[in-house]
Amino acid sequence: MGLIPVKPDEVATIVTSLEMLERPRPAPLPTSPLRLVRWEKPGIERYRALFRRIGGPWLWFSRLVMADATLTAIIHDDAVRIWAVVDRAGIEVGMLELDDRKPGECELSYVGLIPELAGQGHGRWLMAHALALAWGKDVRRVWVHTCTLDHPGALGFYRRSGFVPYQRTIETFVDPRSIDVLPADAAPHYPLLASRR
Fold first, then answer.
1. Residue 170 belongs to what H/E stretch?
2. In the chain, what are the domains?
3. Where is 169: in which H helix or E strand?
4. Residues 64-91 as b or e (16 or more Cβ within 10 Å = b)
5. What is the pTM (predicted TM-score) of this model?
6. pLDDT tens digits, residue range 28-59?
7. In whole angstroms, what separates CA 167 from the centre of its chain?
């Protein structure tokens, strides 16, 4: 067993992929004061602003650095469905993105709420809706992935929701804080080792 060095300006994380191969039994949806609002072909700046609010604390950055044309092609694809989670005041506080581009499968690409809502039961509400929406008539597999940068309870939450882990991989990438994609104080649970460029 040995340790593998990671460059000071990089981040390393263990990614766990999970899947569900059978439609869950019907159950009453949990209640929440939040609601889902469908985003049809959202503007990329609005999309990125919500993506940053939800994922910044967990170093989500892929959609922030993606070329505009590439991101637009994904989020405007008819097989990619996106909802904003809004509170009673109509403020966007979460996101649900389902990717149906592979026949017979649905990926829960992004499922998240702003950190201030953690631990209040809203995640169960959002996951119940995600699964109800993901299991279309021809879907045989729903899958999701999480990583060790995510909320510490994320993996357990997915497993309690009925997902079964099937693969682990290691991912390394340039720390988005070191290249000014996210602020230096993002993800304080993961120390920033490199100076900002």
1. strand 164-174
2. 10-174 (3.40.630.30)
3. strand 164-174
4. bebeeeebbebbeeeebbbbbbbbeeee
5. 0.93
6. 888 899 999 999 999 999 999 999 999 999 99
7. 17
